[in-house]
Amino acid sequence: MTDNLQQVADHGEGRLYEANGFVVPVLHGTSSEMGHQYGALMRDHMQQTWDVLLEPGRTKGAITDDDAGTWTERAMSTFSTRNREFLLGVAAGSGWTIERVGLLDQLMEFGVFQSKLHSFAGCTSIVSWGDHTVDGQTYIGRNMDWTPTFNEFAQVLTVRKPTDGSYKTATVGWPGMSGSFTVLNEHGVYLDIHDGTSMGGSVVYTERPPIPNVLTDVLSEAASRTAVAHRLNGLALSASMILTIADEHGGASMECSSLGGNRLRSPDGTSLVVVNTFLEPAWGLGQRETVSNSLRRLSNMTDRQAECAGTVDAQVTICLLYT
């Protein structure tokens, strides 16, 4: 991607680039300063996302100002200082109200809570390391098969370079959504989110902090996948999801139910496939197929990974995801 980076705007210490269809805001400073940079640089992209995902519901009366106020208050009252100052900065930089910024930021959990955001939930992650790879390094790939309307606006790679001692992070998501959907920090610790509602329950707890934003805190402070797992063990998640976690030493999956807690699934060997089904036997659950063919994807990708044992590198990982 870096070979094709083209700078298109700047604001203070922030820079906005485009590359291969991605929008890439690179932010630097305090949380407030980085939020301000994001809001100023990403305002047009945020508006496009709002127009696609939220404005139709507002026009029909299905999404109200009260919704915006309720979900923003829930976020701002439970956020860490890091996340709260970032969101306030986004509002200041974009010129939007904090309620408008907050509703867009909380769209994922709001949509599940309202049962208005139906996800195809076809995400797959693959991790290979050790003797499964050509050089012993860790290689990670994932797709983001979400609802098709998300194809109507850009994917965003947000790079944060904080000055408060937090770790630098790079997060892939969508305009105006600051949660960690796919994130890598400066220590090489990786995390991604898969919809887990078909297994862990579609209940969203509004009296718990929004988990995508909590994960931003975790990756800003954890220097290994073990540290991430320990942090997750201490959390009651607001929504059910399945997380891929990895670092230079390997990978694992944390299967999280908003109703029943979290379970760590560790691989038997040096490769791992993560889909939208709980696979850890400790749940005492039978494996369940999903509308997006999770078990079929699991079987196919496990077989393809086995065929590539000992040869996996970045290019093989890319090819596997196109299998």
Mean pLDDT: 94
* Spatial gap, N to C terminus: 22 Å
Helix content: 25-40%
Beta-strand percentage range = 15-25%
Principal-axes geometry comes out as: globular
Task: Calculate Rg over CA atoms.
Answer: 19 Å
Description:
This protein has 323 residues and is an alpha+beta fold. 37% of the residues lie in helices and 25% in strands. It contains eleven helices and 13 strands. The strands form two sheets. The chain has a ten-stranded mixed β-sheet with strand order 1-2-3-6-7-8-9-10-11-12. A three-stranded antiparallel β-sheet has the order 5-4-13, covered by helices on one side. Strand 4 (125-130) and strand 5 form a beta hairpin. It is globular. The model has no long low-confidence stretch (mean pLDDT 94).
Can you summarize this structure?
By secondary structure, the chain is of the alpha+beta class. It has eleven helices and 13 strands. The strands form two sheets. Strands 1-2-3-6-7-8-9-10-11-12 form a ten-stranded mixed β-sheet. A three-stranded antiparallel β-sheet has the order 5-4-13, covered by helices on one side.
Question: Secondary-structure blueprint of this entry?
Answer:
Blueprint: E1 6-11, E2 14-19, E3 22-29, H1 31-53, H2 55-60, H3 65-78, H4 81-94, H5 98-105, H6 107-114, E4 125-130, E5 136-142, E6 155-162, E7 169-173, E8 182-185, E9 190-195, H7 197-200, H8 211-221, H9 225-233, E10 241-247, E11 250-257, E12 261-265, E13 271-274, H10 294-307, H11 314-321
Parallel strand pairs: 3-6
Antiparallel strand pairs: 1-2, 2-3, 4-5, 4-13, 6-7, 7-8, 8-9, 9-10, 10-11, 11-12
Helix pairs in contact: 1-4, 3-5, 4-5
